[in-house]
Amino acid sequence: MERPLTQHIREDRRPLSLKEYETVGGYQSLRKMLTMTPKEVQKLVQESNLRGRGGAGFSTGLKWSFVPLDAPKPKYLITNADEMEPGTFKDRILLESTPHQLIEGMIIAAYAIQADISYVYLRWAYKTAAQAILTAIDEAEGAGYLGKNILGSGYDLQMHLHTGVGRYMCGEETALLNSLEGKRATPRAKPPFPQISGLFGKPTIVNNVETLCCLPHIINNGAEWFKKLSLTGDAGTKIYGVSGKVKKPGAWELPMGVTLRELIEEHAGGMQDGLKFRGALPGGASTDFLVEEHLDVKMDYTSVAAAGSRLGTGTIVVMDDKTCPVGFVKNLEHFFAQESCGFCTPCREGIPWVEKILISIENGEGRPEDMDLLEFHTKYLGPGNTFCAFAPGAMEPLQSALKYFRNDFEKHIREKNCSYNRVKEMING
Question: Does position 396 have pLDDT exceeding 90, yes or no?
């Protein structure tokens, strides 16, 4: 089984130096890319069926094609490394352990759109990653892979590291652009799209870390090779993560399309002793629950969508049968209520209200009509009713919890307490 993204990661996670990276084939794709035109690079990536690994799953090559190649410079290529989705930690592995792989991928993407300035927008808490990236940028510049006249090609590219201040909203690409400009991190109206008017009003592409790390391997090995790595129609490998009360939480690079069951039972070692699987968020906190009937769903964009959820980041948050679904969802909504940018009223007011309702239910103060109120919010904070996708994402775990775990909510209201807490109290004496 090929694992191109993680094959050179050491057990101690120390990043490869430039010389070590070159020894295993590093920057060969850059040399190959410089013999191609930007349009040829775009076409190859489109043919590979690489879809964005940040959550949306949009075709990477198609996204690039919307940037006018003849637009005057500057043009920008930005890596979204602001990994703030709860339960998601896949990009951190790549950032800390393979910074040169990311830089090489960024150069390829920048060349494909003829960008001359690039940024890594990094989550503020990733201190180790920041140092690894700064070192790698310096090494790449010293070797002629960055800067003026890269390898004598006439192509110029500057690269910078920018650390954010810890806001979930900066994961939305236009909010990220506002943050880079020194503005409040609120989403922008679209159109115009960033490909036309992005950073400082110039054509801009924002790609995820994992997406960009795929590019050197596609350039080196071709589109058909990349497609054949997958078990389904969604091409390539994917870094899947599993957290929760499993025996071996972690992250693994696997063929796109492995089943949820395989991830939990084989790679994560199954549930901890005495616990049973109850449900899982398949792609981070802002996705709908999958339950036992979905264990054999293939973890690709198409199959997970058909099951009523989203692949998202591919990092699975598992909920066991001893964890209260009401409390589980309440914790998620608390996070979303804190992280709302506050720009639009439904999101600013609606999510905190949802949290208050869930708190009252969990504390034994819930009313039967609270169920209708929660259902109301899942609809009126859904797609098309808010300025961006933040609130609809916040409603996904709630709407699916009301569908699959409704009895738990109603029991809380009926019995005026949390039966899960009673069990814990009995166990603890």
Answer: yes
pLDDT digit string (tens) for 342-362?
A: 999 999 999 999 999 999 999
Q: Which of 75, 77, 128 is nearest to 103 (CA)?
A: 77
CATH 3.40.50.11540 fits 18-228, yes or no: yes
Residue partners of 227: CB distance under 8 A and separation at least 6: 48, 49, 235, 236
- DSSP lists the bridge partners of residue 284 as 282
Give me the residue label for tokens 């490869």: 16
Q: Does the domain formed by 325-427 have CATH 1.20.1440.230? A: yes
- For the sheet containing 250-255, what is the strand order? 250-255, 237-243, 315-320, 277-281
One CATH from 3.10.20.600, 3.40.1280.10, 3.40.50.1370, 1.10.287.950 for 237-320: 3.10.20.600
- Count of CB atoms within 10 A of residue 338's CB? 12
Once rounded to an integer, what is the mean pLDDT over residues 315-332?
Answer: 96
What confidence score (pLDDT) does residue 324 get? 96
Distance CA 207, CA 306 (A): 25
